[in-house]
Write a structure and sequence with these properties.
single chain; 286 residues; alpha/beta; Rossmann fold; Dihydrodipicolinate Reductase, domain 2; 2 domains; eight-stranded mixed β-sheet; six-stranded parallel β-sheet; 10 helices; 29% strand; globular
């Protein structure tokens, strides 16, 4: 299978490349608007490179594409992939306007094209363990998801300075990090959610993007909180608390704790989420 990657200067692309190489997949071409980066990565992979992804799609007979890019550019890239009929996976958030993203999803569905979005948490060990445990927890009433990570300056170091500008990124910690947990609210409950309350702040770094966000969501049966932030501390912190009428699940670091009354089970959930996601995506496509 011949695989291509679009806009490889994205800070996540290396995780996908490593996973593809570990899986023995055939990367035949890559693209990036920055020729220096494209040329460097192509040399490492011993593949062809392009500075225009459209030319890559025209000249290469690709079986599958992993797509990245600035958030503002994602709709154009996704639309082009759909027009060419090339199956693909795209990094989230797919754009900066949900109405545009909805239309792209409809267009892909109409063409019956294989597509996927990088909601890597869905296929993680921790979420798999939670799904297996849900039936024992009774009715799920309250969920809390927190992810606190390092400063926004990391994106400059990773050669993605556009992440600090709202006109290119669409937002900050919420659109970048929070989308994973908003998706989990839907994925774990099977219900659509509405926003009851939100708080968006940028008082530390005073950028055009938010550094801190807290969102309260309501589904038909569940209330959930999603809290995300960029902070001066480079050590990330991820925490879940899911409370049902008969039990509770807690994620603390690399341990998932399942509680039923006085019974308690601790599960080690250490893994490479991106490797597993790439493996699952390729497997489902094949």
């Amino acid at each position: 299978m011949k695989i291509g990657l679009i806009e490889v200067s994205h800070w996540h692309s290396g995780m996908y490349i490593n996973a593809l190489l570990d899986l023995g997949e055939n990367i035949v071409a890559i693209s990036d608007r920055n020729e220096i980066i494209a040329k460097k990565i192509a040399k490492e992979l011993k593949c062809r490179y392009y500075t225009d992804y459209r030319k890559m799609l025209e000249r290469e007979s690709l079986d599958f594409v992993f797509s990245f890019g600035r958030h503002v550019d994602m709709p154009s890239i996704i639309g082009t992939l759909i027009d060419y009929g090339v199956p693909f996976n795209t990094e989230k958030p797919c754009g900066i306007d949900y109405k545009v993203v909805e239309r792209l999803a409809e267009k892909a569905h109409e063409k019956d094209l294989f597509t996927s979005v990088s909601f890597v948490k869905r296929v993680s060990v921790k979420v798999g363990e939670i799904l297996d445990f849900l039936s024992k927890m009774g009715d799920i009433k309250y969920m809390y998801f927190k992810y606190i990570t390092g400063p926004p300056s990391r994106y400059v170091e990773w050669k993605c300075p556009w992440m600090l500008e709202k006109r290119y990124a669409g937002g900050g910690s919420l659109i970048n990090l929070g989308v994973h947990y908003i998706d989990l609210v839907h994925y774990l409950t099977g219900e659509s959610a509405e926003v009851e309350y939100s708080l968006i702040l940028n008082e530390i770094y005073e950028l055009s993007i938010e550094e801190y966000a807290l969102v309260v969501l309501k589904t038909a049966k569940t209330h959930s909180i999603v809290e995300v932030a960029y902070t001066p501390c480079h050590k990330p912190e991820e925490y879940f608390s899911i409370i049902g009428t008969s039990g509770r699940v807690i994620l603390l670091g690399k341990e998932l704790i399942k509680c039923l009354g006085k019974k308690r089970e601790v599960v080690d959930i250490r893994e490479d989420e991106y490797f597993k996601f790439v493996e699952k995506t390729i497997g489902r496509f094949r």
